[in-house]
Design brief:
The structure is a single chain. This protein is an alpha/beta fold. Strands 1, 4, 5, 6, 7, 8, 9, 10, 11 and 12 form a ten-stranded mixed beta sheet that branches. A two-stranded antiparallel sheet has the order 2-3. The longest helix has 15 residues, at 43-57. Helix 8 links the parallel strand 7 and strand 8 (185-194). It has helices at 10-18, 30-35, 43-57, 77-90, 104-108, 110-114, 128-138, 171-181, 222-229; strands spanning 22-27, 63-65, 68-70, 92-98, 119-125, 143-146, 158-162, 185-194, 200-206, 213-221, 233-240, 250-258. The chain has a single domain, classed as Vaccinia Virus protein VP39 (Rossmann fold), CATH 3.40.50.150. Mean pLDDT is 88; it is low at 1-21.
């Protein structure tokens, strides 16, 4: 479903829309979360995401995020500056975009990526149906799709997770896969953290005017999360991030750089 309120400033409207998301707190474990929620892997979520991505691809819309259509690109300049920094330091930009749907972040930053006179590769890691449709309809000389980090056949400059790792059952298993791949950088944005020593599991209820869905979501212990990566990575930069749905959490972004041994 496409919805656009042209009379309201887009940034204000986007924040107002997503701040209306509700949460069920204090969920005990993932099995309990699944009993009272749906998942991203539903036909409704996929079809709305696909339709919006096609509109952007075909030039009928300017930008989409989470199936929502905008008449202006909503840049995340902290993410963009991180990518440009990495391209400058590596003299190329080889990206693995974990949970990148059908190319939202890639197309968001395409104008800047096209201006880079360096080698570029951008592979999205996604669920099988996204990989199938992405490969058939959205793949380019730069953009490709895969089902696993282990399938990547190029040296990775950065693995980025734009609000995706918090929706996984076993996020630390994914961090193990990332460490095994040894990218030069890890880029995390739109992710909820807390000052607690433990991760906390909730259910996110998405407003019906986006799509009907409820998702398990982790709010990570910042100390635990960063410590888990600290054997191989150090924080290069961190920032507050207001584009994550949970206003009760401390939403942050991190750019981590591999330690030089």
């Amino acid at each position: 479903m496409l919805f656009l309120k042209s009379i309201t400033p887009l940034i204000f409207w986007f924040k107002k829309l997503f701040h209306r998301k509700k949460f069920i707190r204090n969920v005990k474990n993932w099995d309990e979360a699944l009993d009272i929620s749906t998942s991203y892997n539903t036909a409704d979520v996929f079809n709305k995401t696909l339709n919006s991505a096609r509109l952007v691809r075909d030039g009928k819309a300017v930008y989409e995020r989470d199936s929502v259509i905008f008449n202006k690109i909503q840049y995340d300049y902290k993410l963009l500056s991180s990518l440009l920094f990495i391209a400058n330091t590596q003299n190329r930009l080889h990206v693995v975009d974990f949970g990148g749907a059908l190319g939202t972040s890639y197309r968001q930053n395409l104008k800047y990526l096209d201006s880079l006179g360096v080698s570029k590769k951008w592979t999205i890691i996604e669920q099988s149906e996204y990989v199938r449709i992405g490969t058939n309809e959205f793949q380019t000389d730069v953009l490709s799709f895969s089902g696993s980090i282990s399938n990547i056949d190029f040296e990775i400059d950065v693995i980025m997770m734009c609000g995706s790792i918090c929706y996984l059952e076993k996020p630390y298993d994914i961090l193990d896969q990332i460490k095994k791949a040894k990218p030069k950088f890890i880029l995390i944005v739109r992710t909820p953290f807390s000052n607690s020593m433990n991760d906390e599991l909730s259910i996110q209820i998405v407003p019906n005017n986006i799509y009907e869905a409820t998702f398990p979501i982790w709010t990570f212990s910042e100390t635990k999360f960063i410590t888990y990566l600290s054997d191989m990575y150090e924080v290069f930069e961190t920032w507050d991030d207001d584009l994550q749905a949970d206003t009760d959490a401390h939403c942050k972004g991190f750019l981590l750089q591999i330690k030089i041994s």
